[in-house]
Amino acid sequence: METVVTNLQGVPINHYILFCSIIFAIGVIGVLIRRNVIVIMMSVELMLNSVNLLLAAFSAYKGDASGQVFVFFVMALAAAEVAVGLAIIVMVYRNTRSVDINALSRLKW
Amino acid sequence: MSAIITLSLLAVLLLYLGLFKAKKALLPVSLLGLLAAIVLYSIQWDTDAEPLYSGMVLFDHFAVAFSILSLFITGLVFLLSRDYFDSISEHVAEYYALIIFSLTGALLVVSFHNLAMLFIGIEIMSVALYILVGIRKRDFSSNEAALKYFLMGAFSTGFLLFGITLIYGATGSFDLTEIKNYLIANPHSISPLFYSGILLLIIGLSFKVGAAPFHFWTPDVYEGAPILITTFMSTVVKTAAFAGFLRLFLTCFVPLQDFWAPVLLVITVLTLFIGNISALAQQSFKRMLAYSSISHAGYMLFGILSIGAASAGAIFVYSAAYSIASVVAFAVLILVKRSRGSEHFEAFNGLAAKNPYLAFTLSVAMLSLAGIPLTAGFVGKFMMFSGVLANYHIVLLLLAVLNAAMGIYYYFRVIVAMYFRPADREEVTVNANYKAVLFIGALLTIAIGIFPSLLAGWL
């Protein structure tokens, strides 16, 4: 464990922050511009995983384990969310035969 | 905490009751469970509140008051569920269990004392709701609402988490007290990560409460979901999200008010105008209520904007008034939709002649939502606006009053339709549960309007 922490600390923290922000931004852009629901979900996962990486890095730098525990919470809840989300996508696919979100435009004013 | 454990067990018990085909027992058992939770919370009222479980949750007056409000409103929603869920599906127990699970998440959100608990609470609350919104499996609009809600919910969770992470990076802790101590200890050398963290948290929480410009999912989801689920979402979930929002800012971020208040100010004004102007144009009562819930989110943001000792009480009274009136409005909508098959304003034409009781209670609810004196909504708006007046300038108050005037127009449309537009229609049959809920709702709305101290003294 100690070597992992020292290895993590070998890279300056600013690099982690920058790297994770870039991944997060890629995720956000993916959600906003992609039209396929599955790809949107992958982009959301990218956002969550950039958060996980940053939490682990901060945790190693602060010498505080709570950040890593939080990563487990994020993973567990993200898994629960994906399970429900995929079920919803399957349900929508059965009705519309499509996973394109442009097909979803019935509710409008 | 015992109340939260009781509710989690209650939900599992309800699933078993469903398994053993004990349909008749579902409603009484859930109501008893809610009552037990309310009692467990009331016992805690005057004991010394200390953070429990290594500072994870804190059941202070704020948490207990909002929890009891959420439990009470959920009880009203359950009373309305008689005959409602049965008509949608065979498997009724799932509805009750999922609503209770979602409520458990809401209770965690109002009593968190650690950012991990805020995240977990929001997720428990939302994941159960994604299922509830899409529970009409063959209905296209329910499908669409579920997918939109899910995507927007997951997206906003990302922002919320990134904000939490940056704040952790700056302070080295998720605990609210530690974060506050960090701010007090370093007033001049706060890490830039902290500022970005606050902005991301504002974005994430604005998504959850449905504040503009992050409101675009709200109308579609509220319209597509089954009416009773919409009722639950626009009352309990919104109240809990606001309580969590306020708790975070009240406990931690007050010293940085100069930084985040302008951002929140822009969000508030946008929310008010977008909510009200769009509500003016609606033809469907349900969609109008969805936009009105956006505008009410705007009014409630005033409470966070003028943050101080009084804002918790103001948001509590406002959300109580808004939730009770909304439950009454949605209950009447369920009955009208059942008899006329339409959610449009025209479906309400001539309701007063055949069902004077329905028309009267709906009018009380609409007056309360519009903020007319002698109703609970007026007390809420008054407390909110006086907080703004104490902290900010007149221009903001004028904008708010202008919006309140716009609100009166669209809320009165339905009253005009009921009383002054004659139409041939059948009498709507109302069962005893609905009568009771309408009675409780109208009575509380008027009682709080005449004796504001009933609620205002709680916080």
Structure description:
The complex is a heterodimer of chains A (109) and B (459). With 109 residues, chain A is mostly helical. Chain A has a single domain (11-107), classed as Helix Hairpins, CATH 1.10.287.3510. Chain A contains four helices and no strands. In chain A, helix 2 packs antiparallel against helix 3 and helix 3 packs antiparallel against helix 4 (66-96). Chain A is elongated and about 55 Å long. The relative contact order of chain A is 0.12. The model of chain B has no long low-confidence stretch (mean pLDDT 91). Chain B has 20 helices and no strands. In chain B, helix 1 packs antiparallel against helix 2, helix 7 (140-171) packs antiparallel against helix 9 and helix 10 (217-224) runs antiparallel to helix 11. With 459 residues, chain B is an all-alpha fold. Chain B has one domain. The A-B interface holds A 13, 17, 24, 27-28, 31, 37, 40-41, 44, 47-48, 50-51, 54-55, 58, 62, 64, 66-67, 69-70, 73-74, 77, 80-81, 84-85, 87-89, 91-92, 95-96, 101, 104, 106-109 and B 116, 119-120, 123, 126-127, 130-131, 134, 137-138, 140-141, 143-148, 150-151, 153-155, 157-158, 161-162, 164-166, 168-169, 172-174, 193, 219-220, 223-224, 278, 281-282, 287.
